[in-house]
Amino acid sequence: MSRRTKGQYSPALFDVAQDIIGGLPIKLIEQWLGSEQTHADALRLVQSFQVTGYNVVSDSVGLTRLSRQRGLIEILALINQPKEIVHGLGAALGGQGVGIWAADNTQMFYPPSVRPEALVSMLLTLQDEVQRSCQIRIGLGAHFGEFYGISGGLYGAQSDAIEELAENHTEGGEVVITQALRELLPRGHAFTLEPKDAPPSLLGPSWVVVEGPRLADLRRSNEPYPIPYSQAFYADLLAYQSRLEDAAFGKHLADKYLQHKVVVLIEREAQAGETPELALFNNLSLSAKMKDTGLRHLASHQGEEVKVVGPLGLYVFDAIPSAVGFAQLFRRELAREGISCRMGIDVGPVLLFDLPSGGRDISGMPVNIASKMAQDMGRPGKLYLSEALAAHVDLRGFTELRDTVSGVEITAYEG
Question: Which one of 47, 98, 124, 278 counts the least CB within 10 Å of its CB?
Fold first, then answer.
Protein backbone atom coordinates (compact mmCIF):
# COMPACT_ATOMS: atom_id res chain seq x y z
CA MET A 1 0.00 0.00 0.00
CA SER A 2 1.37 3.44 -0.97
CA ARG A 3 2.05 5.96 1.77
CA ARG A 4 -1.00 7.97 2.80
CA THR A 5 -0.86 11.54 4.07
CA LYS A 6 -3.17 13.80 6.10
CA GLY A 7 -3.72 15.80 2.91
CA GLN A 8 -5.79 12.92 1.51
CA TYR A 9 -8.38 13.41 4.26
CA SER A 10 -10.68 16.25 5.21
CA PRO A 11 -8.96 18.49 7.79
CA ALA A 12 -12.08 18.33 9.97
CA LEU A 13 -11.73 14.56 10.39
CA PHE A 14 -8.90 14.90 12.89
CA ASP A 15 -10.81 17.49 14.92
CA VAL A 16 -13.83 15.24 15.47
CA ALA A 17 -14.29 14.51 19.17
CA GLN A 18 -13.53 10.94 20.28
CA ASP A 19 -17.07 10.51 21.63
CA ILE A 20 -18.35 11.11 18.07
CA ILE A 21 -15.66 9.14 16.25
CA GLY A 22 -16.51 6.00 18.28
CA GLY A 23 -13.97 3.20 18.52
CA LEU A 24 -11.73 4.44 15.70
CA PRO A 25 -8.39 5.63 17.24
CA ILE A 26 -8.28 8.79 15.16
CA LYS A 27 -5.42 10.48 17.07
CA LEU A 28 -3.24 7.38 16.68
CA ILE A 29 -4.01 7.33 12.94
CA GLU A 30 -3.10 11.03 12.73
CA GLN A 31 0.29 10.25 14.33
CA TRP A 32 0.85 7.45 11.81
CA LEU A 33 -0.01 9.65 8.83
CA GLY A 34 2.48 12.25 10.09
CA SER A 35 5.29 9.70 10.36
CA GLU A 36 7.55 8.14 7.73
CA GLN A 37 5.30 5.04 8.01
CA THR A 38 8.16 2.60 8.48
CA HIS A 39 8.04 -0.60 10.49
CA ALA A 40 9.99 1.19 13.21
CA ASP A 41 7.32 3.92 13.32
CA ALA A 42 4.59 1.32 13.60
CA LEU A 43 6.36 -0.46 16.46
CA ARG A 44 6.95 2.82 18.29
CA LEU A 45 3.29 3.83 18.06
CA VAL A 46 1.82 0.51 19.20
CA GLN A 47 4.43 -0.47 21.76
CA SER A 48 2.49 0.88 24.72
CA PHE A 49 -0.69 -0.90 23.57
CA GLN A 50 0.71 -4.46 23.42
CA VAL A 51 -0.92 -7.03 25.70
CA THR A 52 -0.40 -10.77 26.13
CA GLY A 53 -3.09 -13.16 27.27
CA TYR A 54 -6.12 -15.18 26.22
CA ASN A 55 -8.53 -13.86 23.59
CA VAL A 56 -11.89 -15.69 23.70
CA VAL A 57 -14.57 -14.96 21.10
CA SER A 58 -18.12 -16.31 20.84
CA ASP A 59 -20.60 -16.23 17.99
CA SER A 60 -24.26 -17.24 17.86
CA VAL A 61 -25.34 -20.06 15.56
CA GLY A 62 -28.48 -20.15 13.40
CA LEU A 63 -29.45 -16.55 14.09
CA THR A 64 -30.28 -15.65 10.48
CA ARG A 65 -32.91 -18.38 10.26
CA LEU A 66 -34.30 -17.54 13.69
CA SER A 67 -34.49 -13.83 12.80
CA ARG A 68 -36.99 -14.67 10.06
CA GLN A 69 -39.22 -16.43 12.57
CA ARG A 70 -39.06 -14.04 15.56
CA GLY A 71 -39.34 -10.29 16.04
CA LEU A 72 -36.26 -8.15 16.69
CA ILE A 73 -37.03 -7.44 20.35
CA GLU A 74 -37.45 -11.16 21.01
CA ILE A 75 -34.17 -11.90 19.22
CA LEU A 76 -32.36 -9.31 21.35
CA ALA A 77 -33.80 -10.89 24.50
CA LEU A 78 -32.70 -14.35 23.36
CA ILE A 79 -29.12 -13.36 22.49
CA ASN A 80 -28.85 -11.43 25.76
CA GLN A 81 -29.05 -14.68 27.74
CA PRO A 82 -25.81 -16.33 26.52
CA LYS A 83 -24.00 -12.97 26.62
CA GLU A 84 -24.79 -12.67 30.33
CA ILE A 85 -23.44 -16.18 30.93
CA VAL A 86 -20.27 -15.56 28.90
CA HIS A 87 -19.51 -12.43 30.86
CA GLY A 88 -20.67 -13.65 34.27
CA LEU A 89 -18.53 -16.80 34.29
CA GLY A 90 -15.65 -15.18 32.42
CA ALA A 91 -15.42 -12.23 34.81
CA ALA A 92 -15.54 -14.63 37.76
CA LEU A 93 -12.37 -16.23 36.38
CA GLY A 94 -10.61 -12.89 35.93
CA GLY A 95 -11.66 -12.01 32.37
CA GLN A 96 -12.62 -8.61 31.03
CA GLY A 97 -15.18 -7.79 28.36
CA VAL A 98 -13.73 -6.27 25.19
CA GLY A 99 -15.66 -3.66 23.25
CA ILE A 100 -19.40 -3.08 23.37
CA TRP A 101 -21.49 -6.21 22.89
CA ALA A 102 -24.11 -4.83 20.54
CA ALA A 103 -24.34 -7.84 18.23
CA ASP A 104 -24.73 -11.55 18.93
CA ASN A 105 -20.99 -12.15 19.40
CA THR A 106 -18.77 -11.47 22.42
CA GLN A 107 -15.08 -11.03 23.17
CA MET A 108 -13.25 -11.51 26.48
CA PHE A 109 -9.60 -10.99 27.41
CA TYR A 110 -7.93 -12.99 30.19
CA PRO A 111 -4.48 -12.19 31.64
CA PRO A 112 -1.67 -14.77 31.55
CA SER A 113 -2.15 -15.37 35.28
CA VAL A 114 -5.28 -17.39 34.50
CA ARG A 115 -4.38 -21.08 34.40
CA PRO A 116 -5.05 -22.50 30.90
CA GLU A 117 -6.79 -25.63 32.25
CA ALA A 118 -9.06 -23.43 34.38
CA LEU A 119 -9.97 -21.36 31.32
CA VAL A 120 -10.82 -24.41 29.21
CA SER A 121 -12.86 -25.93 32.05
CA MET A 122 -14.73 -22.65 32.45
CA LEU A 123 -15.56 -22.60 28.74
CA LEU A 124 -17.00 -26.12 28.98
CA THR A 125 -18.98 -25.07 32.06
CA LEU A 126 -20.22 -22.03 30.14
CA GLN A 127 -21.42 -24.15 27.22
CA ASP A 128 -23.25 -26.47 29.64
CA GLU A 129 -25.15 -23.53 31.10
CA VAL A 130 -25.99 -22.08 27.68
CA GLN A 131 -27.24 -25.51 26.57
CA ARG A 132 -29.33 -25.82 29.71
CA SER A 133 -30.90 -22.37 29.89
CA CYS A 134 -30.79 -20.62 26.48
CA GLN A 135 -32.60 -21.03 23.16
CA ILE A 136 -29.57 -19.66 21.29
CA ARG A 137 -26.44 -21.79 20.82
CA ILE A 138 -22.95 -20.32 20.57
CA GLY A 139 -19.54 -21.40 19.33
CA LEU A 140 -16.41 -20.43 21.27
CA GLY A 141 -12.86 -19.88 20.01
CA ALA A 142 -9.91 -19.30 22.37
CA HIS A 143 -6.30 -18.33 21.66
CA PHE A 144 -3.28 -17.33 23.73
CA GLY A 145 -1.09 -14.72 22.09
CA GLU A 146 -0.11 -11.07 21.67
CA PHE A 147 -2.57 -8.33 20.77
CA TYR A 148 -2.90 -4.55 20.78
CA GLY A 149 -5.47 -3.08 23.14
CA ILE A 150 -6.51 0.17 21.44
CA SER A 151 -9.62 2.31 22.09
CA GLY A 152 -11.35 -0.49 23.96
CA GLY A 153 -10.79 -3.12 21.25
CA LEU A 154 -8.24 -5.82 20.52
CA TYR A 155 -6.28 -5.38 17.29
CA GLY A 156 -3.61 -7.30 15.41
CA ALA A 157 -3.33 -10.28 13.11
CA GLN A 158 -3.81 -12.82 15.90
CA SER A 159 -6.95 -11.09 17.13
CA ASP A 160 -8.37 -11.01 13.59
CA ALA A 161 -7.59 -14.71 13.17
CA ILE A 162 -9.34 -15.90 16.34
CA GLU A 163 -12.38 -13.78 15.49
CA GLU A 164 -12.47 -15.38 12.04
CA LEU A 165 -12.19 -18.86 13.56
CA ALA A 166 -14.95 -18.30 16.12
CA GLU A 167 -17.37 -16.47 13.84
CA ASN A 168 -17.07 -18.61 10.74
CA HIS A 169 -15.77 -22.03 11.74
CA THR A 170 -17.34 -23.03 15.08
CA GLU A 171 -20.61 -24.82 15.66
CA GLY A 172 -23.19 -24.44 18.38
CA GLY A 173 -21.93 -25.89 21.66
CA GLU A 174 -18.29 -26.14 20.54
CA VAL A 175 -15.22 -25.01 22.42
CA VAL A 176 -12.32 -24.64 19.95
CA ILE A 177 -8.79 -23.83 21.11
CA THR A 178 -5.71 -22.97 19.08
CA GLN A 179 -2.39 -24.76 19.09
CA ALA A 180 -0.85 -22.02 21.25
CA LEU A 181 -3.42 -22.61 23.98
CA ARG A 182 -3.17 -26.38 23.69
CA GLU A 183 0.59 -26.19 24.28
CA LEU A 184 -0.02 -24.35 27.56
CA LEU A 185 -2.16 -27.14 29.00
CA PRO A 186 -0.27 -29.21 31.58
CA ARG A 187 1.07 -32.61 30.61
CA GLY A 188 -1.43 -35.32 31.42
CA HIS A 189 -4.41 -32.93 31.33
CA ALA A 190 -7.88 -34.46 31.47
CA PHE A 191 -9.30 -32.90 28.28
CA THR A 192 -10.26 -34.87 25.18
CA LEU A 193 -9.19 -32.95 22.07
CA GLU A 194 -9.97 -33.62 18.43
CA PRO A 195 -8.54 -31.80 15.39
CA LYS A 196 -10.84 -29.06 14.10
CA ASP A 197 -11.57 -29.08 10.38
CA ALA A 198 -10.93 -25.43 9.59
CA PRO A 199 -9.12 -23.51 6.82
CA PRO A 200 -5.38 -22.84 7.27
CA SER A 201 -4.68 -19.96 9.64
CA LEU A 202 -1.66 -18.09 10.96
CA LEU A 203 -2.69 -19.53 14.36
CA GLY A 204 -1.87 -23.04 13.13
CA PRO A 205 -4.10 -26.06 13.80
CA SER A 206 -7.06 -25.79 16.15
CA TRP A 207 -8.73 -28.34 18.40
CA VAL A 208 -12.27 -29.09 19.55
CA VAL A 209 -12.50 -29.74 23.28
CA VAL A 210 -14.80 -32.75 23.21
CA GLU A 211 -14.79 -33.49 26.93
CA GLY A 212 -13.09 -32.47 30.14
CA PRO A 213 -13.50 -31.32 33.74
CA ARG A 214 -15.93 -28.54 34.66
CA LEU A 215 -15.72 -25.79 37.27
CA ALA A 216 -18.83 -26.82 39.18
CA ASP A 217 -18.22 -24.34 42.01
CA LEU A 218 -17.73 -21.28 39.77
CA ARG A 219 -20.47 -18.68 40.27
CA ARG A 220 -21.25 -15.83 37.91
CA SER A 221 -19.91 -12.38 38.67
CA ASN A 222 -22.55 -9.73 39.35
CA GLU A 223 -20.65 -7.24 37.22
CA PRO A 224 -22.85 -6.32 34.21
CA TYR A 225 -21.50 -7.12 30.77
CA PRO A 226 -20.72 -4.14 28.49
CA ILE A 227 -24.29 -3.57 27.37
CA PRO A 228 -24.75 -1.16 24.46
CA TYR A 229 -28.29 -0.14 25.33
CA SER A 230 -29.73 2.60 27.50
CA GLN A 231 -30.60 1.55 31.03
CA ALA A 232 -34.28 2.07 30.23
CA PHE A 233 -34.21 -0.25 27.23
CA TYR A 234 -32.10 -2.84 29.00
CA ALA A 235 -34.56 -2.91 31.92
CA ASP A 236 -37.41 -3.47 29.46
CA LEU A 237 -35.39 -6.16 27.68
CA LEU A 238 -34.80 -8.04 30.94
CA ALA A 239 -38.48 -7.77 31.78
CA TYR A 240 -39.40 -9.19 28.39
CA GLN A 241 -36.76 -11.92 28.73
CA SER A 242 -38.80 -13.40 31.59
CA ARG A 243 -42.10 -13.23 29.66
CA LEU A 244 -41.26 -14.07 26.06
CA GLU A 245 -44.73 -15.51 25.45
CA ASP A 246 -46.35 -12.12 26.14
CA ALA A 247 -46.95 -11.01 22.55
CA ALA A 248 -48.68 -7.79 23.61
CA PHE A 249 -45.68 -6.69 25.69
CA GLY A 250 -43.34 -7.55 22.83
CA LYS A 251 -45.40 -5.41 20.43
CA HIS A 252 -45.41 -2.57 22.96
CA LEU A 253 -41.60 -2.62 23.10
CA ALA A 254 -41.30 -2.83 19.30
CA ASP A 255 -43.57 0.19 18.87
CA LYS A 256 -41.65 2.06 21.55
CA TYR A 257 -38.08 1.45 20.38
CA LEU A 258 -37.84 0.28 16.74
CA GLN A 259 -37.37 2.48 13.67
CA HIS A 260 -37.93 1.69 10.00
CA LYS A 261 -34.65 2.35 8.16
CA VAL A 262 -32.73 1.55 5.00
CA VAL A 263 -29.41 -0.01 6.03
CA VAL A 264 -26.24 0.27 3.93
CA LEU A 265 -23.38 -2.06 4.89
CA ILE A 266 -20.01 -1.45 3.21
CA GLU A 267 -17.04 -3.78 3.54
CA ARG A 268 -13.79 -2.50 2.11
CA GLU A 269 -10.93 -4.77 1.13
CA ALA A 270 -8.34 -5.60 3.76
CA GLN A 271 -4.78 -4.40 3.16
CA ALA A 272 -1.71 -6.50 3.74
CA GLY A 273 1.62 -5.24 5.00
CA GLU A 274 5.20 -6.43 5.15
CA THR A 275 4.70 -6.89 8.89
CA PRO A 276 1.57 -7.30 11.06
CA GLU A 277 2.15 -3.81 12.51
CA LEU A 278 2.29 -2.21 9.07
CA ALA A 279 -0.88 -4.09 8.09
CA LEU A 280 -2.57 -2.79 11.24
CA PHE A 281 -1.87 0.84 10.35
CA ASN A 282 -2.65 0.33 6.66
CA ASN A 283 -6.11 -0.89 7.62
CA LEU A 284 -6.68 1.79 10.26
CA SER A 285 -5.83 4.39 7.60
CA LEU A 286 -8.45 2.89 5.28
CA SER A 287 -11.04 2.84 8.07
CA ALA A 288 -10.34 6.54 8.56
CA LYS A 289 -10.91 7.03 4.82
CA MET A 290 -14.32 5.39 5.15
CA LYS A 291 -15.12 7.63 8.11
CA ASP A 292 -14.03 10.69 6.10
CA THR A 293 -16.05 9.74 3.03
CA GLY A 294 -19.19 9.27 5.12
CA LEU A 295 -18.78 12.57 6.94
CA ARG A 296 -18.48 14.43 3.62
CA HIS A 297 -21.49 12.92 1.85
CA LEU A 298 -24.06 11.75 4.38
CA ALA A 299 -25.72 15.13 4.94
CA SER A 300 -26.42 15.64 1.22
CA HIS A 301 -28.03 12.17 1.08
CA GLN A 302 -30.03 12.62 4.30
CA GLY A 303 -28.23 9.72 5.94
CA GLU A 304 -26.46 8.96 9.21
CA GLU A 305 -23.37 6.97 10.04
CA VAL A 306 -23.90 4.26 12.62
CA LYS A 307 -20.28 3.16 12.89
CA VAL A 308 -17.04 2.41 11.12
CA VAL A 309 -15.23 -0.52 12.70
CA GLY A 310 -12.45 -2.50 11.06
CA PRO A 311 -13.28 -2.95 7.36
CA LEU A 312 -17.02 -2.30 7.89
CA GLY A 313 -19.11 0.84 7.64
CA LEU A 314 -22.81 0.92 8.57
CA TYR A 315 -25.15 3.74 7.55
CA VAL A 316 -28.91 4.35 7.79
CA PHE A 317 -31.35 6.33 5.64
CA ASP A 318 -35.07 7.05 5.57
CA ALA A 319 -35.34 6.87 1.77
CA ILE A 320 -34.23 4.05 -0.53
CA PRO A 321 -33.03 6.29 -3.42
CA SER A 322 -30.82 8.27 -1.03
CA ALA A 323 -29.28 5.07 0.33
CA VAL A 324 -28.56 3.64 -3.12
CA GLY A 325 -27.15 6.95 -4.37
CA PHE A 326 -24.87 7.23 -1.35
CA ALA A 327 -23.60 3.67 -1.80
CA GLN A 328 -22.82 4.23 -5.48
CA LEU A 329 -20.99 7.50 -4.74
CA PHE A 330 -19.04 5.85 -1.90
CA ARG A 331 -17.98 3.02 -4.19
CA ARG A 332 -16.76 5.44 -6.87
CA GLU A 333 -14.74 7.48 -4.38
CA LEU A 334 -12.98 4.44 -2.94
CA ALA A 335 -12.36 3.05 -6.43
CA ARG A 336 -10.63 6.28 -7.47
CA GLU A 337 -8.09 5.62 -4.71
CA GLY A 338 -7.67 1.98 -5.70
CA ILE A 339 -9.75 0.66 -2.81
CA SER A 340 -12.29 -2.06 -3.61
CA CYS A 341 -15.42 -2.65 -1.57
CA ARG A 342 -18.64 -4.66 -1.61
CA MET A 343 -22.00 -3.42 -0.35
CA GLY A 344 -25.37 -4.72 0.79
CA ILE A 345 -28.58 -2.73 1.24
CA ASP A 346 -31.80 -3.85 2.97
CA VAL A 347 -34.74 -2.15 4.66
CA GLY A 348 -36.84 -2.90 7.74
CA PRO A 349 -37.18 -2.39 11.50
CA VAL A 350 -33.97 -1.75 13.45
CA LEU A 351 -32.91 -0.70 16.91
CA LEU A 352 -30.51 2.27 16.93
CA PHE A 353 -28.76 3.20 20.15
CA ASP A 354 -26.06 5.53 21.45
CA LEU A 355 -23.09 3.84 23.12
CA PRO A 356 -21.94 4.88 26.60
CA SER A 357 -18.37 5.33 25.34
CA GLY A 358 -19.41 7.40 22.33
CA GLY A 359 -20.61 6.49 18.85
CA ARG A 360 -23.66 4.42 17.97
CA ASP A 361 -24.65 0.89 17.07
CA ILE A 362 -27.53 -0.96 15.46
CA SER A 363 -29.34 -4.29 15.55
CA GLY A 364 -31.91 -5.78 13.22
CA MET A 365 -32.60 -8.17 10.38
CA PRO A 366 -31.69 -5.59 7.67
CA VAL A 367 -28.14 -5.54 9.07
CA ASN A 368 -27.97 -9.35 8.89
CA ILE A 369 -29.34 -9.51 5.34
CA ALA A 370 -27.05 -6.72 4.11
CA SER A 371 -24.11 -8.59 5.65
CA LYS A 372 -25.08 -11.93 4.12
CA MET A 373 -25.42 -10.38 0.66
CA ALA A 374 -22.19 -8.38 0.77
CA GLN A 375 -19.90 -10.55 2.88
CA ASP A 376 -21.14 -14.08 2.14
CA MET A 377 -22.54 -13.78 -1.41
CA GLY A 378 -20.74 -10.67 -2.60
CA ARG A 379 -17.85 -10.02 -4.95
CA PRO A 380 -15.40 -7.10 -4.67
CA GLY A 381 -16.63 -3.96 -6.40
CA LYS A 382 -20.29 -5.01 -6.39
CA LEU A 383 -23.45 -3.58 -4.84
CA TYR A 384 -26.24 -5.90 -3.67
CA LEU A 385 -29.89 -4.94 -3.18
CA SER A 386 -32.26 -7.14 -1.19
CA GLU A 387 -35.54 -8.51 -2.44
CA ALA A 388 -37.34 -5.92 -0.29
CA LEU A 389 -35.81 -3.12 -2.37
CA ALA A 390 -36.56 -4.65 -5.77
CA ALA A 391 -39.93 -2.93 -6.25
CA HIS A 392 -38.47 0.49 -5.39
CA VAL A 393 -35.33 0.58 -7.54
CA ASP A 394 -34.65 0.59 -11.28
CA LEU A 395 -33.01 -2.83 -11.64
CA ARG A 396 -31.62 -2.27 -15.13
CA GLY A 397 -27.97 -3.26 -14.91
CA PHE A 398 -28.58 -5.56 -11.94
CA THR A 399 -28.50 -9.36 -12.03
CA GLU A 400 -30.77 -11.49 -9.85
CA LEU A 401 -28.94 -14.00 -7.64
CA ARG A 402 -30.23 -16.71 -5.33
CA ASP A 403 -28.19 -18.48 -2.70
CA THR A 404 -28.60 -20.27 0.61
CA VAL A 405 -26.63 -18.65 3.43
CA SER A 406 -26.72 -19.97 7.02
CA GLY A 407 -29.64 -22.17 6.03
CA VAL A 408 -31.71 -19.27 4.65
CA GLU A 409 -32.49 -18.71 0.95
CA ILE A 410 -31.61 -15.15 -0.02
CA THR A 411 -32.51 -13.34 -3.24
CA ALA A 412 -30.24 -10.43 -4.11
CA TYR A 413 -29.69 -8.12 -7.06
CA GLU A 414 -26.06 -7.53 -8.04
CA GLY A 415 -24.96 -4.39 -9.82
Answer: 47
User: Read out DSSP for 130-191?
Assistant: HHHH-SSEEEEEEEEEEEEEETTEEESHHHHHHHHHHHHH--TT-EEEEHHHHHHSPTT-S-
- Domain harbouring 294, CATH code: 3.30.70.1230
Alpha carbon 317 to its chain's center: 21
Say which amino acid occupies 216.
A
What pTM does this model have? 0.88
234-262 tens-digit pLDDT: 899 999 988 888 999 999 999 999 999 99
Check whether residue 38 and residue 66 sit in a common domain.
no
The sign of the dihedral angle between the CA atoms of 15, 20, 21, 26 is positive
**Do 312 and 209 share a domain, yes or no?**
no
Q: Are 371 and 265 in contact (CB under 8 A)?
A: yes
Residue pair 290/308 in contact by the 8 Å Cβ criterion: yes
Residue 241 domain-assigned? no
In a domain, 101, yes or no: yes
CA 27 to chain centre: 22
H or E element at residue 286? helix 276-297
State the pLDDT confidence band at 18, using cuts at 50, 70 and 90: very low
- Structural domain including 154 reads 50-233
Reported as a single tens digit per residue, the pLDDT across 326-352 is 999 999 999 998 899 999 999 999 999
Report the run of H or E that residue 315 belongs to, with start and end: strand 312-317
Query: In whole angstroms, how far apart are CA 303 and each of 59, 298, 312, 314, 320?
Result: 30, 5, 17, 11, 10
Contact 28/18 with Cβ under 8 angstroms?
A: no
List, in sequence order, every beta strand (DSSP E) within 41-136.
50-61, 96-97, 106-110
* Residue 56 near residue 142, CB atoms below 8 Å: yes
Residues 6+ apart with CB under 8 A from 55: 98, 107, 108, 109, 142, 143, 144, 145, 147, 154, 158, 159, 162
Residues 123 and 20 in one domain: no
Measure the CA–CA gap between 278 and 310, rounded to whole angstroms.
Answer: 15
Rg (CA), the chain: 21
Alpha-carbon 128 to chain mean position: 24
* Listed residues 233, 249, 272: the one ending a domain: 233
